[in-house]
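Q: A reviewer asked whether we had any structural model of the full assembly, not just the individual parts. We don't, so I'm hoping you can provide one. Inputs are below.
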Amino acid sequence: DTGVSQDPRHKITKRGQNVTFRCDPISEHNRLYWYRQTLGQGPEFLTYFQNEAQLEKSRLLSDRFSAERPKGSFSTLEIQRTEQGDSAMYLCASSLGGGAVGYGYTFGSGTRLTVV
Amino acid sequence: KNQVEQSPQSLIILEGKNCTLQCNYTVSPFSNLRWYKQDTGRGPVSLTIMTFSENTKSNGRYTATLDADTKQSSLHITASQLSDSASYICVVSAAHTNAGKSTFGDGTTLTVKP
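A: Here is a predicted structure for the entire assembly that you could use as a starting point for your response.
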């Protein structure tokens, strides 16, 4: 296991199309997070899973966004009817939950989405 | 509202020089503070993690300090190298939260020139 993997690394799509990203966390990590990052900004929290349960969603996550983690392993993030404002880097992170929440994230390399 | 403010926004230094990046936070109650290095187009990579009781932690040429009373942290980079050029992000987690979210700063962009 070499860390958190994200696929694809880059995605260019036309406005109005749907896109889906995949994240494979570190195998023993039970927590998985999705973040969105725009240029010059820090990552913004989107949603968080503990095992297969989606425990929290940010208000940034509009109805066009949906995330799943069906078997508590890999996760997908889907954006429907993409808009130009969705252009960003989408980061996935995982951690082994327990005491201090959010302690010791490992991030993937991200998926760069460009909506044209 | 929990906030993390980093300064400066950007910094240019010559190779071999030292530099210090600042992070001020208002996250409460405090759990831990992490510094990440993010190369362009890549995900953040953890440099240091500090809890309330830790004042300083080193990772090679990177040394982080934490003053929990003033809610300030600094990241000192010694003998900078060209490969240190990156964005450095300060992340603070609150205690007793059920969510996995933390509060991220917007980062300091460091450019090391030969």
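A: Points you may want to mention in the reply: The longest strand of chain B covers residues 30-38. Chain B has a mean pLDDT of 92.
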